[in-house]
Amino acid sequence: MARAICWSVWSSMSFSFVIAQILNGLASASSLFIVASGLTIVFGVTRIVNFAHGSLYMLGAYFAVTLMTPLLDVSRSFPMFVLGLICAALLTGVLGIALEVLLLRRVYKSPELLQLLITFGLVLVIQDLVIRIWGPLEILGPRAPGLRGAVSIAGVQVPSYDLFLIAMGPLVFGLIWLVLARTRFGILVRAATQDREMVAALGVNQSILFTGALFLGAALAGLGGALQIPRAAASPQMDIAVLTDAFVVTVIGGMGSVPGAALAALIIGQLNAFGIVVFPKSTLVLVFLLMAAVLIVRPYGLLGRAEPLSLRVVTPEGFTAIAPTSAPTWRWCGVLIAALTILPWAVDAYAQKIAIEILIFALAAFALAFLIGNGGLVSFGHAAYFGIGAYAAGLAVKKLGFGMETALLLAPLAGAGAAALFGVFIVRLSGIYLAMLTLAVAQIVYAVAVQWVELTGGDNGIVGVWPARWASSRITYYYLTLVLCSAGIFLLHRVLHAPFGYALRGARDSAVRADAIGLDVVKLRWLAFTLAGAATGLAGGLYAFSKGSIDPTLLAIPQSVDFLAMLLMGGIQHIAGALVGSTALHTLKVIALPLTDMWRMLLGVMIIAIVLLTPQGLVGGGLRLFRRSTRGGASA
Amino acid sequence: MIARPLLSVDRLTKAFGGVVAARDVSFEVGRGELVALIGPNGAGKSTTFNMVGGQLEPDRGSVMLDGTAITGLAPRAIWRLGAGRTFQIAQTFVSMTAVENVQMALQSAQNMSFNLWRSAHALHRDAAIGLLRSVGLADSADRPVATLAYGDIKRVELAIALAGAPKLLLMDEPTAGMSRGERHDLMVLVGALARDLGLGVLFTEHDMDAVFGHASRVLVLVRGEIVARGTPAEVQADALVQRIYLGKSGTLAAAEAGRSRGTS
Amino acid sequence: MPTRRTLLAHASAALILASSGTAFAQQPPVKVGELNSYGSMAAFAVPYRNGLNLALDEINAKGGVLGGRKLEFIIRDNGATPGDAVGVAEELVTREGVSMLVGTFLSNIGLAVSDFANQKKTLFLASEPLTDAITMGAGNPYTYRVRPGTFMQTRMLVDAVKAKGVKKWAIIAPNYEYGQSAAASFKRLIKEATPDAEIVVEQYPAIGKFAADAGATIAALDAAKPDGIFNVLFGADLAPFVREGNTRGLFKDRTVVSLLTGEPEYMLPLKDETPENWIITGYPWEQIADPAHKAFVDAYRAKFNDTPRLGSMLGYLVVYMVRDLINKAGAPETDKLIAALGDMKFETIAGPVTMRGLDRQSSLGGWVGLSTQKNGQGAMKDWKFIDGATVMFTEADVKAAQKK
Questions:
Q1: What's the pLDDT at C177?
Q2: Could you tell me which CATH number the domain at C151-287+367-390 has?
Q3: pLDDT at residue A250 in the model
Q4: So what's the pLDDT on residue B91?
Q5: What residues contact C202, with CB distance under 8 A and at least 6 apart?
Q6: I need a surface site. Which of B79, B95, B224, C193 has the fewest CB within 10 A?
């Protein structure tokens, strides 16, 4: 059947149509490559996953629409247009320098993930800034002089500008190649991409290298955005849209590999051009399916290289020593539980609701801390298991007619089941590729939730998921949440202190050593992934009943980033970090939301401030203050 | 009837790209025997080690441990068959204390690493301290391994390797980072372990004192091939080895080490 | 806790524009909670809020509601996800003690808040979400919708185009609920109108990402050789569709029918590239002669130094509906409000509107016409106002949906 459809579609493609699609695919490949090459260079040199790359692209587009009008007023000519492109790219590049010098440089000594968090804070800030500066309406920029029309190729009308774009890809590739191959800076970039330690050992001034990489990366992002102006309107939503695409290209090509990015962009361009003909709804998911498939077959992307079997001892980014829980700590836990028990009687219904949400997020974030902090498994797709738990609970109630109790049992099972299934593929990878596969998987799950309207209600979601009658009062549901979330956190905490938790942390510290004492690292990680999936699924189920509705935003990228932000804000080195961070972030959001339309900027600024002020997270910073004050007290 | 050798390596070969890192490497290690694998940098020592330990899969050849073929098995499987190892750059669990490192190995040996419930803090702690004592580190048991001197970390690695009650110890540069006195002590310790427990030990070493002072036999690896083998004295006397590897000062050092052993 | 609460109180005080000089008697104000995506959907939500504030000022200057009580709107950003929105709705109901909820733009948020209203037994007047689920399958007795939904707007367009007898249609719609259900409604209605009509090609680019594969998508549409195109793309997707489609000759000699395109929110960015003669729904605010509407436009331009958008008109109109509703109910209590609202008739700046009790959908109509350019700006021509009552779901449709 499917084959018959495909065949009919393919057979209906005329020669000229095939030519048209190839050219269209090449034009989008060029655009994709230019923006992705910047991302891959920045990653290669600095190992920073720059979430703000899409924002720089957006700024490039806005700079271009702003600059182009006065420039073209001077002379409506193609060279002026090119000048506008270059200016927009350079301006964005300068922003890249500012980003490196003012923000990233301050946290190089902190866990790498914090740099990611800063760039995420920037995404929020830049989004609102753009609306503030350029207004919320999209802006259609001028077309390129001399390239407004279309050229007839094999009977197809091909816009001249597409041909220009098709030429720009190889041109930019060539320029990058020249810089990388022929300049001292380029040689250093390549060396750093292959082996950072070596560059450090050569006595290279690392900060100049990083500043240069950020300039180049940002300028390429800006150029990519500016080049879109004749085709697309500059809009405040274009940052996230391009970011996922740039990630995909970078990962499929192999992170740090410019030729890889070019190859991946070519493949994706053609895949999309022809894919939409066969499956008109496929753009949502096609590239992520490709990325997942590539990573499963080639764990380092098409042209990426495995890091050499490294015996280097690196301080792991995660929990440092886990001591047996001391008696005072248990006492504080008791006080906390007691306080949480009387809390609902001390606050109003709305605060009770916020407390319920914080408890739920605390469990989900703690599960993420279990993975990242203890296992070194960085998940960019944690929301998938949260959402799957929520959907399992919602579907159990609405479609299968189960009660809330069964639904809350099914939620962790579904989370665990999904994590166990995806985990088989995910845990065989490591580092950034593992993170990217979790992202791809989450996007695929997201696409299923959006697309499978009959089951999931599409992006409208499912409404009417309310607690059973006995738990329908806010206070009862609060206690239910308190019991289940504390139990979940307690169990995970127990596992952290059990031989399994130790073995998992050991595998994070040195996989080579773990293997050499008989530990099956892949199996350890798989079980950890599954356990975290179960806890997160339970959190998702509880969340569904607390909100009464579920929809795909629960398993979308922003929710995953929220969980990461909670963990990192709280501090990744301490077990309590996730708990403190989820409380802090959600409280901030609740406070910021009613204050201003620009709550995203406010949130972004607060995230950046916290990262800069306490790079060890709130818990790390708090402990330092506490120790300083006790020491000060003792000496006084 | 000749006793079956503990470790028998037969024609191991490994190439990276076009570069042959090991070619037809064959040797045996018996019980109670300390076999040193020496050679200049890049001679293929670590490659050979990693093929025996399972970290690398050989292109060709076989490895038998106590009669069982272990060629191409995962390191964890080889460990369970009785081979403990240390690494050229020490591999420990840096977020843990010295004793926790050893406890981890003991828990793994007892197949307890997938236990989700029991508290791991005290599990096998006494036995772990015992192992640390045997390598002279009992006093540092509760220090985070990251704060130990490099030589001590190497000892922790040895204790970890011993936790699996191995038949064979694979030690890649066990004395790197140690003072001269420490080196000697460690090699004496390893020699005693081999003798008392009947362990076979295969080690690489740059320090010629350690090699010629303590090894039962020496293998010389140059550009991926074994060019000489025999007792320390035989290897020392080998003209080829002298020319391409030991050089003049090396020869002197070897002779000196041999003499000091003769006198001790 | 007290500090945070005072913080919140200050913040809401700042947001409430109660600039009227009328001194209200000691009676407490009537509070209405308003939530919308002011940050993430600023293009639509901010003009909506402006219209809303304009109406509030007028009403309170004239003595408020219920014979002298001030009408107060507590306005909140809904955080742009359904989960956040439900939390905000909760805050408005439990902490601010609002009598009813108003607002929302995105359909999934509208639905989540609607379900929350049902659970909390609070009236929710959904002003902008387009999804038909809110009145049909997922409807509930506490949720009423003001704006004509996807089905109604599609039907206006199909009614306008059916005389042309176009048979081979292409559909292009964003790949989410709004796009999918508009496409489904179009398929159903066009076949009712023109029995031998067929859909020769459908394309569903991801929302906000049309531009990435614009060329390929347009080539796919073109290759199927349709005679008519039904477009549901809007916002950031619309401009590249128009521009690339023009460059590639997609629209040449074809009938184009396009949802929402004439709304200033979407048409303004097109400027001198606004296509000619597309059949569109929209809001030709500058051409509407009705004096009440003219007065609104003048007041709006004077106050905000900006031209009104469709959202401005809706915000303005909704506040007046709320005023009339509260006055009719006699007290801001849910039971009385709901009893009053079913089949209630309103006089609005867009003509008389009835809130049909059956599906809790207002009969607010829409403007259908042709797109054109005037002085380098997009505009509508040959338009007429379609009474919403003529394009609503039939009672049989509604009953079938409610039975499910």
A1: 86
A2: 3.40.50.2300
A3: 93
A4: 93
A5: A280, C170, C171, C172, C173, C183
A6: C193
Q: Phi first, then psi: what are they for A239, rounded to 5°?
A: -70, -50
Q: Say if CB B208 and CB B253 are below 8 A apart.
A: yes
CB nearest A21 (choices: C177, C205, C219):
C219
**Which residues in chain A touch residue B74, judged by CB atoms under 8 angstroms apart?**
515
Residue of A nearest to B52 (CA): A516
Interface with A, mutate which of C248, C272, C404 (most A CBs under 10 A): C248
Paired tokens of B60:
């060709």
Taking CB atoms within 8 Å and a gap of at least 24, the contacts of A431-435 are A431/A307, A431/A378, A432/A43, A432/A47, A432/A49, A432/A255, A432/A378, A433/A251, A433/A255, A433/A295, A433/A299, A433/A300, A433/A301, A433/A304, A434/A377, A434/A378, A434/A379, A435/A49, A435/A378, A435/A379, A435/A380
* CATH code matching the domain that covers C30-149+288-365+394-403, chosen among 3.40.50.2300, 3.40.1110.10, 3.40.50.720, 3.40.50.150: 3.40.50.2300
Amino acid letter at A33?
F
| Chains in contact with B via at least 3 Cβ–Cβ pairs below 8 Å | A
- What average pLDDT does range A375-387 have in this prediction? 95
Q: How far apart are CA A309 and CA B55, in angstroms?
A: 9
How many CA atoms, within 13 angstroms, populate the side-chain half-sphere of residue B200? 19
Please give the structure tokens belonging to residue C122. 């609070």
- Cα–Cα distance for residue pair A286/A271, rounded to 1 Å: 8
**Alpha carbons C84 and C86: distance in angstroms, whole number:** 6
End-to-end Cα distance, chain B: 34
The DSSP annotation for A203-245 comes to T--HHHHHHHHHHHHHHHHHHHHHHHTTTS-B-TTHHHHHHHH
Contact A549 C115 (CB under 8 A): yes
User: At A85, which amino acid appears?
Assistant: L
**Confidence label for A279 from pLDDT (cuts 50, 70 and 90):** confident
At residue C74, the pLDDT reads 96
Name the amino acid, one letter, at B171: M
Residue intervals in chain C for CATH 3.40.50.2300: 30-149+288-365+394-403, 151-287+367-390
Which domains are delineated in chain B? 1-30+40-81+204-264 (3.40.50.300)
Question: Which of A7-21, A405-419, B210-224, C130-144 bottoms out in mean pLDDT, i.e. has the lowest?
Answer: A7-21
ipTM, two decimals: 0.92
The C-alpha of A450 sits at a distance from chain C's nearest C-alpha, in angstroms, of 7
- Structure confidence by residue, pLDDT tens digits, A145-165: 988 888 888 778 889 999 999
**Do residues A425 and A280 touch, judged by C-beta distance below 8 A?**
no
Quote the strand ranges of A332-435, DSSP E. none
Task: Please determine, for residue C2, whether its predicted confidence score (pLDDT) is greater than 80.
Answer: no
Q: Which of C11, C83, C180 sits opposite A594 (nearest CB)?
A: C11
List strand residue ranges (DSSP E) for C235-356, in order: 255-262, 279-282, 345-348, 351-356
SS3 content of chain C, % helix, strand, coil (to 5): 45, 20, 30
A327 to chain B, any CB pair closer than 8 A? The answer is no
**Percent of chain A's residues with pLDDT above 70:** 94
B53: nearest Cα among A453, A509, A311, A69: A311
Question: What is the mean pLDDT of the segment spanning A331-360?
Answer: 95
Nearest-neighbour CA in chain B from A226: distance (Å): 43
Name residues 170-209 of chain C within 8 A of A (Cβ).
175-177, 180, 201-206, 208-209
CB contact residues (below 8 A), chain A span 154-173, against chain C: 156-159, 161-162
For chain B, list residues with pLDDT below 70.
Answer: 1-3, 244-264
